[in-house]
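Progress against Task 2.4 (sequence-to-structure conversion) is shown through the following example record, which the project officer requested during the mid-term review.
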Amino acid sequence: MTIAVCPGSFDPVTLGHADVITRAAALFDEVVVAVAVNPAKQGLFTVDERRELLAAALEGVDNVRTDAFEGLVVDYCRAIGAATLVKGLRSSTDFGFEEPMAQMNRHQTGVDSVFLITDPAHSFVSSSLVKEVARGGGDVGAFLHPEVHRRLRERLG
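Structure tokens generated for the chain above:
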């Protein structure tokens, strides 16, 4: 069985994330969406809330599950028997950031990275931008699953 890990903060999960994860699910037997736990950073949503929102956004994708991890993602991959990381790329800037990490991960542990190009409809969307626009009163509903959008509006008041 091939297991891949899609790591990220997912604060909140966007339709771009959901697209990449759904496409990864078609390539691997199991995809674990691993929410990074960083005690030094306070997210808008808790790790458990992010996992709930991921489950809502990925409903119906049977071979995907969520989990949380702390520390190096490659150590997490080894612990669950995953040999592949899946990352979405929005632009060449993302590739420039991800490529050295992919090389280091492979060198350190043999975990390979697979990059999926984000759907052009979502290529400019990030969780940070969604939160910034939503905080300013802008409508971000086109970039989020309806339940994620509802919870974001609720959280921001």
